[in-house]
Structure formats: C-alpha cells, structure tokens
Amino acid sequence: MTGKRTRTLGLIAGMVVVLGGFGYLLYGNIGENIVFFLTPSELLAKGGEAYDQPVRLGGQVKAGSVQWDAQALDLRFVIKDADGEIAVHSKGAPPQMFQTEMGVIVEGKLTHAGSQPLFESTNLMVRHSNEYQPPKDGHPKPEQMYKSLIKD
Amino acid sequence: MIRILGYGAVVAALTLAVYGLVAAAWGVRARQAALIRSARAAAYLNAALLVAANVLMVYALLPHDFSISYVAQVGSRATPAWVSIVSLWSSLEGSILFWGMVLALYTAGAMYFTRSSLGALGAYANAVMLGVGAFFYLLLAGPANPFRTVFPVPADGPGPNPLLQNHYLMAVHPPLLYLGYVGMTVPFGFAMGALLSGRLDDTWLRVTRRWTLTAWMFLSLAIMAGMWWSYEVLGWGGYWAWDPVENASFMPWLTATAFLHSVMVQERRAMLRVWNLSLIVSTFLLTVLGTFLTRSGVLSSVHAFGEGPIGLYFLVFIAVVLVFSLAMLAGRSTELKSTGSMDSMLSRESVFLLNNLLLTAFTFTVLLGTLYPLLAEALRGVKVSVGAPFFNKMTLPICAALLFLVGMGPMLPWRVADRQQLKRTFVAPATGLLLTLAGALVAGVRSPYGLLAFAFAGFALVSNLQEFAQATAARRRHAGLPVLPALLSLFRVNPRRFGGYTAHIGIIIAAIGIAASSEFRTEREATMKPGDTLEVGGYKLRFDDLQGYDEPHRFVVAANFSILSGARTTGKMNPRLNYYTARGGEPVTTPSVRSRATNDLYMTLLAFEQDGSTATVSVIVEPLVSWIWVGGMIVALGAILAIRPARARRVAETAAAPAAAVEVA
User: Fold this and answer.
1) Contacting residues for B655 by C-beta, under 8 A, at least 6 apart
2) Which of A98, B51, B382, B389 is deepest in the core (most CB within 10 A)?
3) What percentage of chain B exceeds 70 in pLDDT?
4) In this predicted model, what pLDDT tens digit does every residue of A111-134 receive, in sequence order?
C-alpha cells in the first residue's frame, strides 16, 4: 500500500514538474510574440519604446502621400489618425483596392530612418467590412476600373 | 406565409425540446415509461420541424423573397442558384438554423438506434441533447431569428459575403464543419446520461463509438476543406494562419482525437474513466466555444461573421454546461475509480497516455493563444494579437513528438512489450527513419523541425505499413487467401484497428505535404507588361494580356499567362480579381492554382493598370501541397472503415479465430 502511495506521489510530482515546465514555456513564448494593435498617435506616444517592437498599426492613408513604384514593387505612404502620422515603407504590391484615405492595417516595426521614424511594413491589409456600403462620392466607381479592359 | 410557417416550426421545436427535456428526466424519476417514450417522440418530431424550417428557408432564398429578413440580408437577384442555396449557412442566423437541423437529426438518429436497449441512460441522454437543442432553438426564436419581417421589402439584396461565394468549397466546408461540431453533442449527451443515471460502465462508450467516429470524420474533412478553401481563395499561398476561427475548428478535433485513443485504454485496461468523460465534455465545450468565437464578433478574423448580440447567450450557455458537467463528474468521482493499473512504460497504453498528454498540451496552447487577446483586452485594456511564431514555436515540437508516437503506438503491444520481439519490429521503421532523414538532408532541408518531420514521417509510415504487411501475411497463412483479398479482409476482421492505421497513414501523408510545402516554398512578385516572361521555381511564365468581362453577379479582371516549355505553351494561368457589384465592388483576389503530384503553381493578381499596360502578380511554387488534401481524405476513409457496425465486427471476430493472433502481434 505504501509502495502504491509512493508511486502515486511520484506520478503527481512528475505531472507538476511537466506542467510547470510547460506553463513556463507558454508564458515566456506568449510574452515574446504578442503584437500590439495601435494607432499612429498611440505608437508615437510610446516614445523610445515604440521602436523595433512588432506592431499592428491601424489608421488612414493620408491624402496625396502614396508613392508607388510598380517596377521596384516599392510602396511609401503616410498613415495617420486624428492626432498623429507616421511614414510607412512596404515592399511588395499593395492590394488592388488600396487607395488614398482608406483604412489600412500594417504589420511591422517602427525603425529609425535617418532622423525620421519610418514604419517598415511586412504585411499590408485593407480594412473591409462584411456589410454593404454604397460607394462614396469622389471615389472611382468600380465599373470605371475595368470597363477599359473589356474587349469585343 | 413562409415566414409564419418557418417561425412557427422554430417555436414548436423550442417548446417540444423543453417538454422532452422535462418529460425524459421526470419519466426516469417517476418510472413512467410513457413519458420517456413521449420525450423520444419529441426528438423525432423536432428533427422533422427543423428540416421543414430549413426547407422553407431555401424556398425563400431561391426565388429571392426579400420580405424575410435573412433573405434580405444575404440574397441577391444576381447570384447563381447554388450560391442562393449555400447562403443558408453563409451568415449568422441561417447558420444557426442549419446547425439546429443537424443537431435535431443527430439527436433523433441517436435516439432511434438506441431505442430498445438503454433505459434511464438513454432517457437522460435524450434530455441532455434536447436541452442543448433548446438553447439553439431559443437563439432562433429570439436574437438570431432568420424569419423576421422586413418592411418596406427591398427590391434587391447584397448577396452573401464575396469571400464565401467566390469558391465552390464554401458549399462543402461549412456543412462538414457543422456535421463534425454538432455530432460531438451525441457522445456528450450519452456521457452525461451515464453520469446522471449512474450507469458508469462502458455502455455509453460502446453506443457512442460510431457517433463519435462519424463526427470526428466530418470534423477532419471540414478542417481539411477549410485549409483547402483558404489556400484556393485567400491568395497568399498558405493554408493555415493560426487564425482564431481555424483554431476554433482545430481544438475540438485535438481533444476528440485524444478521446479516440484513450477510450481504448478504458476498454482494455479499465483505466482513465474520469479522463475520458472529461475529454468528451471538453470536446463539446470547445465546439460551443468555437461557435461563440465565430458568431459573437469578439475576435477579428477573416472568417468571422461580425458583430452580433448573441455573445452573451453563448457565454451563459458555456458557463451552465461547464458547471453542470463538473458537478456531475465530481458527484460520481468515487464511483469512477480505475480498477486497472499500468504494467509497463513500454506498452501501448503508455503510448496512448503520452499521446493524450501531448494532445492536451496542444489544445491548451492553441486555446491560450486564441483567447489571450480577449484576456488582454479585458484585464489590461490593450489590443493585442498573438503572432504565428508563438503557435509555431510551441506546437512544432508537439507535432514532431506526435508523429513519432504515430509510429511507436502500432508496434507496442498492450501491457508489456517483449523486448526481443520489439527489436525485430523496430528494424524496418528505424531504417525508414534513417533513409528519409538522409533523403531530406540531400534535398536541402536544414531546419531542425523540417528534418524531424521527414524522419518521423518515414518512421511512422513504415511502422504502420508494416502492421498491414504482417497482418496480411498472417491472414494468407491462416485463411489461404491471395494478397489483395487477405489485405482487404483485415478491414472486415478488425475494422477498428486497421481503419485506425489507415487514418495514421493519412495523417503522415498530410504531414509530409505540410513539411515539404513550408520547407521548399519559392515566391516572387513582379510587375509585368504584356509579352514579359518570368521564371519561378522551374516554371517559365509569359504575361499575355489583361482581360475584363462581365458575369451576372460580378465582373472579372483576369491576367492571362502562358506556361512555356521552350517555345511550346504547356498550360494557361489566369489569376483574377472578382468584383461583386452588389457588395460595393471590393475586389476579391482569385488565385489561379495548377496542382500536380510534385508541386503546385500558384498565381495571384495583386494589382493592374486600368489601361491594361501592366499587371502585378505574385507567383508561388510549393511542392507536394496536394498531398495534404489527399492525406485528409485518407484520414476520413480510415474513419469510415473503422465505423463499421460493432455487431458485424463481433461476429467476424468469433468466426475468424486467427484474427486473435493478428491482434496480439
């Protein structure tokens, strides 16, 4: 009976060690891999801590800020919210629906580019909703984007 | 008219479910067989009512009857008929309506097949399943009512979410997922029935074995179809992103897989009773949690259904189920003590224990990563997401260890392994391990997990094939059969065991596909003019032209490419952007995928100039991707083979005595 009890205790001790180790691993890893979701002003408010941390930055594309080099697949624009703006650089083509003044989310890190902060984006997502919204005035109608491509 | 009939059916189902719940429980207490029978009749009637409600909704969707709220929400005059039909499960209310039907059918089916044998256990199981049903019918009658009136009646609607109508797999994946998810209610119902009735032997396991396997089979297929859909639709050439909704479908699969293994330990060795009950409760809870995550809008995800008021209902339901199940388990804990004990670490039951430990750790990791953003927002008020590196770092070692166990399990006998015999069995799989490891090194794999994946896949594949080979040889000797009939007879003699090994082989094949496609992915993006060529991963591609055309429910911009081999054109690729006009015209990327046994060529149109002068595309070449889908289907085939009726199996086992010799090997 005591033998059985020792064995049970041993088993429980083993479980505690295994679970503790696993919990420690989980805790450490999740801490390293959290990505904060921030707006440009929230990111800037973090000051020095803002740099070199993985961040999802959500805001609006500033009017007139988009520079797209199709051959080099190099995209630069400014993302802004009510109180702040940050320059963004991204390699690779943006989604077709990417356009000025729309809501976007960029994933990446804030870096020092010379004296200015520059957000190096590894992933650019366009915010879109499941709900229907009529086209806004001033935006190109979707039809205009393809009519020129229809051939007889 | 449809509106009134449909809503009437839902309300009637709710009333009947509540009646049946009370009647079944009261019937057992008061020993009133008539009450118990009437509760079973309520389950049958509910199935008919929910089928009627779903048929009515399809009858409203097909002719676009926009006076019904759900049709106005997801219907559009321009959509093809198949899209109108699958719209049934494309949005919140309709998906719960469909869910309710599947649940009612499962409940009625389970009650019908156990009608004569189970007494109080069956009656309580019915009560529990009707109780679960009542929750969903309550949602349908109140906050998620798809049959509300719309006034004024709109002339046209927006159609379902473009991502959903952009690929035919959307007609396949959700029903499979519901069949898998909802099916887990049956073993949960019977487990609770066992606890409530105090009939704690293996009866509930025996009667629910086929139901659990069926649900698991559908869930496996659903996860595979979901991966396939992401791959074909989302345009980044991947199939798994640790997205909350993907995780939601995966977690119950993990616990159900653990259950399918640990249940054998209970049957053979009378251990793990509490554990098995807990696994079934967890599986059921995880399906409800998954539904909550996808339907309540608490998590942002590419697949989620958006905001809804029903989150609170789900939270209350989850809490009730959790408290109720824990209380039942605690109340019976003294009666659930194991009678068997472990003899050796080198035995099949110890491999199953380890497998369960790993699968539980896996589930917990995914659960934590999925819920962490919710916890962080609730507790610290920050918006965060948990990156894929967390999931990969934590789960890749677990995956590697599991793959190793897939090879170890079949080689070890129950109780204690004979070391001499084990050495002999070990030779071939160990050779397989070394050969695949060498092959992977030669092919250029350098990442530790890539090497482990290939090596253990080789090990496990040989180990499982060896089981088939040895058993076939034994059948040939004893029954004097030629090779193929002997091999096929294995599935008749011991469907469960060899169905299981078949599922193992499917998992191994899928693992190889996943490892190869992530290790050897080649990707390029380029902006091209008509006539330009591009070489990626052994393919030479020429951009021919950009083409726009109208379809009734959308318009399409396609970039036409030719695959060149020397001067010859050996194939065409046409990645597209589809614009669903009724949905505001946001473009939906539609990749062009060319699947071959060796590799997939995957092209996405990212952007284009409106005058047709340039197109920007991404080209990805990934080896062995299609083997993931093949593997998934083999897993399902294995489950189907193992589902064979228990009675036929018993007869076959007693009739074919040599099978016992096979079993021991």
Assistant:
1) none
2) A98
3) 94
4) 987 778 899 998 888 765 444 344
The CATH architecture of the domain made up of A35-129+137-149 is Beta Barrel (2.40)
- Yes or no: say if B181 and B291 are a contact pair by the CB < 8 Å rule: yes
Chain A residues close to B364, C-beta within 8 Å: 26
Q: Name residues 25-64 of chain A within 8 A of B (Cβ).
A: 25-26, 29-30, 32-38, 54, 56
Question: Is B600 domain-assigned?
Answer: yes
Q: What is the pLDDT of residues A76-109, one digit of tens each?
A: 999 998 888 999 999 887 777 777 778 888 889 9
- What span, in angstroms and rounded, lies between the C-alpha atoms of B278 and B329? 8
Q: Do B584 and A133 touch (CB under 8 A)?
A: yes
Residue B596 — left, alpha, or beta (φ > 0 → left; ψ -120 to 50 → alpha)? beta
In a domain, B664, yes or no: no
* Interval B436-488: pLDDT, tens: 999 999 999 999 999 999 999 999 999 999 999 999 999 999 888 899 999 99
A5 Cβ contact partners less than 8 Å away, ≥ 6 residues apart: none
Give a yes or no: residue B568 inside a domain: yes
Q: Which of B:609-628 have CB within 8 Å of A?
A: 609-612, 614, 616, 618
Domain total of chain B: 1
Cα(A92)–Cα(B229) distance, rounded to whole angstroms? 24
**Could A145 and B557 be called an inter-chain contact, meaning their C-beta atoms sit closer than 8 Å?**
yes
Min Cα–Cα distance to chain B from A6, Å: 15
Residues of A in contact with B365 (CB under 8 A): 26
